[in-house]
Here is the input.
Amino acid sequence: MLCPTAEVYKLEDLDTKNETLGSWQLNATHNVDCLTGLRAMPDECIDMFVTSPPYWGQRGNGGLGQEPDPRDYVKNLVEILNEAMRCLKPSGLFWLNVGDAYNTPINWREEDYVHSSLGAEGKGLDKNNSAYTKVRGRRKAFIDKKVGFLQYGNLLALPYRIVTAMGDAGWLFRGEVVWVKSRPLPEGICRRPHRRHEGIYIFAKSERHAFRVKPPVGSVWELKQTPNKLPHCSTFPFDLPLQCIEASALEPDAVICDPFMGSGTTARAAQSLGFNFIGFELDAAMCNIANSESSGNGQASLKLG
Ligand SMILES: C[S@@+](CC[C@H](N)C(=O)[O-])C[C@H]1O[C@@H](n2cnc3c(N)ncnc32)[C@H](O)[C@@H]1O
Here is the structure.
Protein backbone atom coordinates (compact mmCIF):
# COMPACT_ATOMS: atom_id res chain seq x y z
CA MET A 1 0.00 0.00 0.00
CA LEU A 2 1.49 3.34 -1.00
CA CYS A 3 -0.21 5.56 1.50
CA PRO A 4 0.66 4.73 5.10
CA THR A 5 -2.61 6.22 6.34
CA ALA A 6 -4.51 3.59 4.39
CA GLU A 7 -6.03 2.12 7.52
CA VAL A 8 -8.58 4.96 7.57
CA TYR A 9 -10.06 3.75 4.26
CA LYS A 10 -13.40 2.09 4.51
CA LEU A 11 -13.45 0.51 1.10
CA GLU A 12 -15.96 -2.15 2.08
CA ASP A 13 -18.46 0.60 2.94
CA LEU A 14 -18.28 2.13 -0.47
CA ASP A 15 -21.12 1.80 -2.88
CA THR A 16 -19.06 1.80 -6.07
CA LYS A 17 -21.51 3.16 -8.54
CA ASN A 18 -21.41 2.49 -12.20
CA GLU A 19 -22.34 6.06 -13.07
CA THR A 20 -21.01 8.54 -15.56
CA LEU A 21 -20.37 12.23 -15.62
CA GLY A 22 -20.61 13.65 -19.11
CA SER A 23 -18.35 11.41 -21.14
CA TRP A 24 -16.50 9.98 -18.19
CA GLN A 25 -17.02 7.11 -15.83
CA LEU A 26 -17.34 8.17 -12.21
CA ASN A 27 -15.02 6.85 -9.49
CA ALA A 28 -12.10 6.47 -11.86
CA THR A 29 -9.04 8.40 -12.97
CA HIS A 30 -8.82 8.94 -16.71
CA ASN A 31 -5.56 9.05 -18.62
CA VAL A 32 -6.18 12.28 -20.50
CA ASP A 33 -5.13 15.92 -20.50
CA CYS A 34 -7.32 17.57 -17.89
CA LEU A 35 -8.43 20.44 -20.14
CA THR A 36 -9.82 17.85 -22.58
CA GLY A 37 -11.32 15.94 -19.66
CA LEU A 38 -13.01 18.97 -18.12
CA ARG A 39 -14.36 20.15 -21.48
CA ALA A 40 -16.24 16.85 -21.79
CA MET A 41 -18.08 17.39 -18.51
CA PRO A 42 -21.42 19.21 -18.12
CA ASP A 43 -21.84 22.60 -16.44
CA GLU A 44 -22.18 22.59 -12.65
CA CYS A 45 -21.78 18.85 -12.05
CA ILE A 46 -18.95 18.87 -9.48
CA ASP A 47 -19.44 19.53 -5.76
CA MET A 48 -15.81 20.24 -4.98
CA PHE A 49 -12.36 20.35 -6.52
CA VAL A 50 -9.14 19.78 -4.67
CA THR A 51 -5.87 19.60 -6.54
CA SER A 52 -2.20 20.36 -6.72
CA PRO A 53 -0.99 21.09 -10.26
CA PRO A 54 2.66 20.66 -11.18
CA TYR A 55 4.64 23.67 -9.99
CA TRP A 56 6.44 25.78 -12.55
CA GLY A 57 9.62 24.16 -13.83
CA GLN A 58 9.61 21.11 -11.59
CA ARG A 59 10.41 17.72 -13.01
CA GLY A 60 7.74 16.11 -15.13
CA ASN A 61 7.15 14.33 -18.40
CA GLY A 62 5.29 16.90 -20.41
CA GLY A 63 2.05 18.52 -19.32
CA LEU A 64 1.66 21.68 -17.33
CA GLY A 65 4.69 23.23 -15.66
CA GLN A 66 7.19 22.71 -18.50
CA GLU A 67 6.64 26.17 -20.03
CA PRO A 68 9.95 28.08 -20.25
CA ASP A 69 8.15 31.39 -19.57
CA PRO A 70 6.38 31.43 -16.17
CA ARG A 71 3.73 33.77 -17.63
CA ASP A 72 2.70 30.96 -20.01
CA TYR A 73 2.47 28.60 -17.04
CA VAL A 74 0.07 30.99 -15.27
CA LYS A 75 -1.98 31.46 -18.47
CA ASN A 76 -2.27 27.72 -19.12
CA LEU A 77 -3.14 26.88 -15.52
CA VAL A 78 -5.76 29.63 -15.33
CA GLU A 79 -7.35 28.32 -18.56
CA ILE A 80 -7.73 24.91 -16.88
CA LEU A 81 -9.04 26.46 -13.65
CA ASN A 82 -11.63 28.50 -15.59
CA GLU A 83 -12.88 25.33 -17.26
CA ALA A 84 -13.07 23.61 -13.87
CA MET A 85 -15.07 26.52 -12.44
CA ARG A 86 -17.61 26.05 -15.24
CA CYS A 87 -18.10 22.48 -13.97
CA LEU A 88 -18.39 23.54 -10.31
CA LYS A 89 -21.84 23.73 -8.69
CA PRO A 90 -22.80 27.13 -7.23
CA SER A 91 -22.62 25.48 -3.78
CA GLY A 92 -19.11 24.20 -4.42
CA LEU A 93 -15.53 25.18 -3.68
CA PHE A 94 -12.22 24.84 -5.50
CA TRP A 95 -9.20 24.19 -3.26
CA LEU A 96 -5.92 24.87 -5.07
CA ASN A 97 -2.58 23.93 -3.55
CA VAL A 98 0.21 25.54 -5.53
CA GLY A 99 3.75 26.59 -4.67
CA ASP A 100 5.87 29.52 -5.78
CA ALA A 101 9.23 29.47 -7.59
CA TYR A 102 12.37 31.56 -7.67
CA ASN A 103 13.57 32.69 -11.07
CA THR A 104 16.64 30.46 -10.86
CA PRO A 105 17.57 27.23 -12.60
CA ILE A 106 16.73 24.02 -10.78
CA ASN A 107 19.97 22.64 -12.08
CA TRP A 108 22.74 25.18 -11.73
CA ARG A 109 25.22 25.24 -14.57
CA GLU A 110 28.74 26.53 -14.59
CA GLU A 111 27.67 29.74 -16.26
CA ASP A 112 25.52 30.45 -13.21
CA TYR A 113 28.70 31.23 -11.24
CA VAL A 114 28.09 34.81 -12.18
CA HIS A 115 25.01 34.86 -9.94
CA SER A 116 26.55 32.96 -7.05
CA SER A 117 27.83 34.33 -3.78
CA LEU A 118 28.85 30.85 -2.61
CA GLY A 119 32.34 29.38 -2.37
CA ALA A 120 35.49 30.68 -0.73
CA GLU A 121 35.74 33.70 -3.02
CA GLY A 122 32.04 34.20 -3.44
CA LYS A 123 32.29 33.19 -7.10
CA GLY A 124 30.68 29.79 -6.95
CA LEU A 125 31.50 26.30 -5.78
CA ASP A 126 33.74 23.68 -7.34
CA LYS A 127 32.38 22.80 -10.76
CA ASN A 128 31.84 19.18 -9.64
CA ASN A 129 29.75 20.27 -6.69
CA SER A 130 26.36 18.52 -6.71
CA ALA A 131 24.73 21.97 -6.82
CA TYR A 132 25.71 21.96 -10.50
CA THR A 133 25.84 18.28 -11.39
CA LYS A 134 22.79 16.70 -9.72
CA VAL A 135 19.90 16.36 -12.14
CA ARG A 136 16.85 17.86 -10.48
CA GLY A 137 14.88 19.29 -13.35
CA ARG A 138 15.18 21.18 -16.59
CA ARG A 139 14.02 24.61 -15.52
CA LYS A 140 16.15 27.60 -16.46
CA ALA A 141 15.76 31.10 -15.15
CA PHE A 142 13.56 33.12 -17.52
CA ILE A 143 15.05 36.58 -17.72
CA ASP A 144 13.48 39.43 -19.65
CA LYS A 145 15.25 42.69 -18.94
CA LYS A 146 12.24 44.68 -20.14
CA VAL A 147 9.89 43.00 -17.63
CA GLY A 148 10.52 44.10 -14.05
CA PHE A 149 9.60 40.92 -12.22
CA LEU A 150 11.52 38.62 -14.59
CA GLN A 151 14.88 39.31 -13.02
CA TYR A 152 17.29 36.61 -11.97
CA GLY A 153 16.67 35.22 -8.49
CA ASN A 154 13.33 36.94 -7.96
CA LEU A 155 10.53 35.08 -6.17
CA LEU A 156 7.99 35.06 -8.97
CA ALA A 157 4.83 35.34 -6.85
CA LEU A 158 3.13 32.74 -9.07
CA PRO A 159 0.31 31.83 -6.63
CA TYR A 160 -0.62 35.53 -6.37
CA ARG A 161 -0.59 35.91 -10.15
CA ILE A 162 -2.91 32.88 -10.42
CA VAL A 163 -5.22 34.17 -7.67
CA THR A 164 -5.36 37.62 -9.27
CA ALA A 165 -6.14 36.17 -12.71
CA MET A 166 -8.93 34.05 -11.21
CA GLY A 167 -10.40 37.13 -9.51
CA ASP A 168 -10.16 39.09 -12.77
CA ALA A 169 -12.07 36.26 -14.50
CA GLY A 170 -14.92 36.85 -12.05
CA TRP A 171 -14.44 33.96 -9.60
CA LEU A 172 -14.65 34.61 -5.88
CA PHE A 173 -11.44 34.26 -3.88
CA ARG A 174 -12.78 32.97 -0.58
CA GLY A 175 -9.67 32.45 1.51
CA GLU A 176 -6.20 31.10 1.93
CA VAL A 177 -4.91 28.32 4.13
CA VAL A 178 -1.24 28.14 5.05
CA TRP A 179 0.00 24.56 5.15
CA VAL A 180 2.91 24.34 7.59
CA LYS A 181 5.14 21.46 6.56
CA SER A 182 6.55 19.06 9.12
CA ARG A 183 9.09 17.81 6.55
CA PRO A 184 10.11 20.77 4.38
CA LEU A 185 12.57 20.21 1.55
CA PRO A 186 16.10 21.33 2.43
CA GLU A 187 17.06 24.57 0.66
CA GLY A 188 20.83 24.68 1.23
CA ILE A 189 22.74 27.84 2.02
CA CYS A 190 20.89 30.82 0.61
CA ARG A 191 20.12 34.43 1.49
CA ARG A 192 16.39 34.01 1.85
CA PRO A 193 13.97 32.36 4.26
CA HIS A 194 13.94 28.58 4.08
CA ARG A 195 10.40 27.80 3.08
CA ARG A 196 8.33 25.45 5.16
CA HIS A 197 4.88 26.50 4.07
CA GLU A 198 2.66 26.40 1.00
CA GLY A 199 -0.63 28.03 0.23
CA ILE A 200 -4.01 26.46 -0.42
CA TYR A 201 -6.28 28.95 -2.20
CA ILE A 202 -10.08 28.67 -2.09
CA PHE A 203 -12.34 29.79 -4.94
CA ALA A 204 -16.11 29.80 -5.35
CA LYS A 205 -18.51 30.86 -8.09
CA SER A 206 -21.28 31.97 -5.76
CA GLU A 207 -21.29 33.72 -2.43
CA ARG A 208 -23.85 31.11 -1.30
CA HIS A 209 -21.34 28.26 -1.38
CA ALA A 210 -21.30 25.63 1.36
CA PHE A 211 -18.64 25.70 4.10
CA ARG A 212 -18.23 24.10 7.52
CA VAL A 213 -18.82 26.65 10.23
CA LYS A 214 -18.75 24.40 13.32
CA PRO A 215 -16.04 23.87 14.30
CA PRO A 216 -14.66 26.83 12.35
CA VAL A 217 -11.96 26.16 9.78
CA GLY A 218 -8.58 27.60 10.80
CA SER A 219 -6.23 29.28 8.33
CA VAL A 220 -3.02 27.50 9.42
CA TRP A 221 -2.90 23.74 8.98
CA GLU A 222 -0.23 21.43 10.32
CA LEU A 223 -1.03 18.42 8.20
CA LYS A 224 -0.01 14.89 9.02
CA GLN A 225 2.80 14.37 6.55
CA THR A 226 3.63 10.87 5.46
CA PRO A 227 6.68 9.87 3.43
CA ASN A 228 6.22 9.88 -0.34
CA LYS A 229 7.03 6.38 -1.55
CA LEU A 230 6.71 7.46 -5.18
CA PRO A 231 10.04 9.00 -6.25
CA HIS A 232 8.75 10.61 -9.45
CA CYS A 233 5.62 12.31 -8.28
CA SER A 234 5.17 15.14 -5.81
CA THR A 235 2.27 13.68 -3.88
CA PHE A 236 0.49 15.80 -1.32
CA PRO A 237 -0.25 14.32 2.11
CA PHE A 238 -3.46 12.30 2.42
CA ASP A 239 -4.45 14.72 5.17
CA LEU A 240 -4.57 17.65 2.69
CA PRO A 241 -7.55 16.58 0.55
CA LEU A 242 -9.11 15.04 3.67
CA GLN A 243 -9.11 18.37 5.54
CA CYS A 244 -10.32 20.28 2.45
CA ILE A 245 -13.21 17.82 1.98
CA GLU A 246 -14.16 18.00 5.65
CA ALA A 247 -14.14 21.82 5.54
CA SER A 248 -16.44 21.86 2.49
CA ALA A 249 -19.63 20.63 4.21
CA LEU A 250 -20.55 18.36 1.30
CA GLU A 251 -23.91 16.65 0.84
CA PRO A 252 -24.01 12.81 0.71
CA ASP A 253 -23.16 11.42 -2.75
CA ALA A 254 -21.10 14.51 -3.58
CA VAL A 255 -18.59 14.25 -6.43
CA ILE A 256 -15.04 15.47 -5.83
CA CYS A 257 -12.77 16.14 -8.80
CA ASP A 258 -8.98 16.32 -8.99
CA PRO A 259 -7.86 17.35 -12.51
CA PHE A 260 -4.19 16.59 -11.66
CA MET A 261 -4.82 13.29 -9.88
CA GLY A 262 -1.22 12.02 -9.79
CA SER A 263 -1.07 8.87 -7.66
CA GLY A 264 -4.71 9.16 -6.55
CA THR A 265 -4.43 10.75 -3.09
CA THR A 266 -7.62 12.77 -3.62
CA ALA A 267 -9.48 9.67 -4.84
CA ARG A 268 -8.54 7.77 -1.71
CA ALA A 269 -9.45 10.66 0.58
CA ALA A 270 -12.86 11.02 -1.14
CA GLN A 271 -13.52 7.31 -0.83
CA SER A 272 -12.46 7.19 2.81
CA LEU A 273 -15.23 9.69 3.58
CA GLY A 274 -17.81 7.92 1.40
CA PHE A 275 -17.87 10.40 -1.52
CA ASN A 276 -17.56 9.90 -5.27
CA PHE A 277 -14.57 11.11 -7.22
CA ILE A 278 -13.38 11.69 -10.73
CA GLY A 279 -9.86 12.50 -11.85
CA PHE A 280 -7.63 13.15 -14.83
CA GLU A 281 -3.95 12.31 -15.10
CA LEU A 282 -1.68 12.71 -18.11
CA ASP A 283 1.00 10.25 -17.05
CA ALA A 284 -0.23 6.73 -17.86
CA ALA A 285 1.90 5.03 -15.21
CA MET A 286 0.69 7.47 -12.53
CA CYS A 287 -2.89 6.98 -13.72
CA ASN A 288 -2.56 3.21 -13.30
CA ILE A 289 -1.27 3.70 -9.78
CA ALA A 290 -4.20 5.99 -9.00
CA ASN A 291 -6.67 3.42 -10.25
CA SER A 292 -5.09 0.45 -8.55
CA GLU A 293 -4.74 2.27 -5.22
CA SER A 294 -8.32 3.54 -5.19
CA SER A 295 -11.23 1.16 -5.32
CA GLY A 296 -12.32 2.62 -8.65
CA ASN A 297 -14.46 0.47 -10.85
CA GLY A 298 -11.39 -0.65 -12.75
CA GLN A 299 -12.44 0.91 -16.00
CA ALA A 300 -10.36 4.01 -15.81
CA SER A 301 -9.04 5.56 -18.99
CA LEU A 302 -12.24 4.46 -20.67
CA LYS A 303 -14.11 7.29 -22.30
CA LEU A 304 -17.72 6.35 -22.82
CA GLY A 305 -20.01 7.14 -25.70
C1 LIG B 1 1.85 17.54 -8.27
S1 LIG B 1 1.34 16.12 -9.14
C2 LIG B 1 -0.16 15.70 -8.32
C3 LIG B 1 0.08 14.76 -7.18
C4 LIG B 1 -1.17 14.28 -6.49
N1 LIG B 1 -1.78 15.35 -5.71
C5 LIG B 1 -0.82 13.11 -5.60
O1 LIG B 1 -0.96 13.21 -4.37
O2 LIG B 1 -0.36 12.09 -6.14
C6 LIG B 1 0.72 16.80 -10.63
C7 LIG B 1 0.28 15.77 -11.64
O3 LIG B 1 -0.33 16.43 -12.75
C8 LIG B 1 -0.07 15.66 -13.91
N2 LIG B 1 -0.31 16.55 -15.07
C9 LIG B 1 0.50 17.51 -15.59
N3 LIG B 1 -0.11 18.14 -16.62
C10 LIG B 1 -1.34 17.57 -16.74
C11 LIG B 1 -2.46 17.81 -17.60
N4 LIG B 1 -2.41 18.77 -18.54
N5 LIG B 1 -3.56 17.04 -17.45
C12 LIG B 1 -3.61 16.08 -16.50
N6 LIG B 1 -2.58 15.81 -15.65
C13 LIG B 1 -1.47 16.56 -15.76
C14 LIG B 1 1.36 15.19 -13.73
O4 LIG B 1 1.63 14.04 -14.50
C15 LIG B 1 1.40 14.91 -12.21
O5 LIG B 1 1.13 13.57 -11.94
Summary: The radius of gyration is 20 Å.
